[in-house]
């Protein structure tokens, strides 16, 4: 493991520290700062020539600053002759703009993939992409991990009765089906419609039986919390006994925390791909550590073992 180096930007340094603690190696030394003119500066403070290097940096708030830090760190490592550079992007920002669903709009998820590749990344390690096809935007290897096992185990330990797993929209059906299989529970699907480009949705229908059941809503991320609040209300109005929610990425932007605090949702279970700190730490929000999963994947990539074997049934 002496040839393995893990570095971090400013997006989620606590996660990087937890990863290197799992790997039992020191965190790589580097300087990542912003000048008064808002230009980002990076300096690698140790020898990385021919080393296997990993940069842990979710593309989370402030999104553009986090992305630029990641790109410049990759470029700095490339120019320092690093042997291989893996961008560890627990949360892939801009992933929701993954197709042209309107005239004259960009496919920003593809643009970010191109930027990471041109910067010098040789490999991508990420967690629960918004859409699986984003892997195909890269011409370099992509390892996509999933937090389904971590979150499912959390719910198993609660010993909840009469569970139904609820996909928050048609697009998240496969993810919800995987949760349902893990929890040995039936599946229901929320049919909803997004209103324009605003973060607003309209719930139209519930496909499946939720009456008298404990509902667990599943999504890859919770952003402003609008969809979550609407889904919880619709489920309770249709006879659900109580509602839990889970997602991998706690974006929690804008009024999300206020909405969750005032919502009748029993508990929101997330991971720390994005830091949940300060005023975002509500009693009803449970944050599960993702570092052991990332750390094990990094170790397997470094030693040439299978990453997919992490998720095979035992």
**Helix-strand topology string:** EHEEEHEHEEHEHEEEHEHEEH
Assembly classification = single chain
The Rg value, from CA coordinates, equals 20 Å
Mean pLDDT: 94
The termini sit apart by: 27 Å
Taken from the alpha-carbon principal axes, the silhouette is: globular
Could you give the count of β-strands?
14
Q: Based on helices, strands and strand pairing, what is the structural class?
A: alpha/beta
CATH A-level architecture of the largest domain: 3-Layer(aba) Sandwich
Please describe what this structure looks like.
With 314 residues, the chain is of the alpha/beta class. It folds into 2 domains: 4-147 and 291-311, Rossmann fold (3-Layer(aba) Sandwich); 148-288, Rossmann fold. Helix content is 29%, strand content 26%. It is built from 8 helices and 14 strands. The strands form 3 sheets. It has a 7-stranded mixed sheet with strand order 10-9-8-11-12-13-14, with helices on both faces. A 5-stranded parallel sheet has the order 1-4-5-6-7, with helices on both faces. Strands 2-3 form a two-stranded antiparallel sheet. A hairpin with a 6-residue loop joins strand 9 and strand 10 (201-207). Helix 2 runs parallel beside helix 3 (108-119). The protein is globular and about 60 Å long. It starts with a strand and ends in an 11-residue tail after the last helix. The mean pLDDT is 94.
């Amino acid at each position: 493991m002496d040839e393995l180096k893990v570095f971090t930007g400013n997006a989620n340094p606590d996660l990087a520290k937890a990863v290197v603690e799992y790997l039992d190696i020191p965190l790589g030394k580097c300087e990542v700062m912003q000048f008064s003119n808002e230009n980002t500066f990076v300096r690698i403070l140790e020898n990385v020539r021919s080393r296997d290097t990993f940069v842990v940096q979710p593309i989370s708030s402030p999104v553009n600053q986090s992305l630029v830090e990641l790109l410049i760190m990759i470029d700095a490592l490339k120019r320092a002759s690093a042997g291989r550079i893996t961008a560890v992007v627990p949360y892939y920002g801009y992933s929701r703009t993954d197709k042209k669903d309107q005239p004259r709009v960009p496919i920003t998820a593809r643009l970010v993939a191109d930027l990471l590749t041109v910067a010098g990344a040789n490999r991508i390690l990420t967690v629960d992409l918004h859409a699986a096809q984003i892997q195909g935007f890269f011409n370099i290897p992509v390892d996509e991990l999933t937090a389904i096992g971590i979150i499912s185990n959390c719910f198993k330990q609660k010993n909840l009765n009469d569970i139904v797993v609820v996909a928050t929209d048609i697009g998240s059906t496969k993810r919800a089906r995987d949760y349902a299989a893990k929890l040995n529970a039936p599946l229901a699907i929320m049919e909803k419609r997004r209103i324009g480009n605003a973060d607003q949705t309209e719930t139209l229908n519930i496909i499946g039986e939720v009456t008298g059941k404990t509902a667990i809503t599943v999504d890859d991320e919770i952003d402003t919390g609008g969809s979550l609040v609407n889904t919880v209300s619709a489920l309770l109005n249709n006879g659900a006994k109580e509602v839990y929610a889970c997602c991998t990425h706690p974006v929690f932007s804008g009024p999300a925390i206020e909405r969750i605090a005032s919502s009748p949702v029993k508990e929101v279970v997330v991971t720390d791909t994005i830091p949940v700190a300060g005023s975002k730490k509500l009693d009803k929000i449970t944050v599960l550590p993702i570092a052991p999963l990332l750390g094990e994947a990094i170790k397997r990539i470094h030693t040439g073992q299978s990453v997919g074997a992490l998720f095979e049934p035992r």
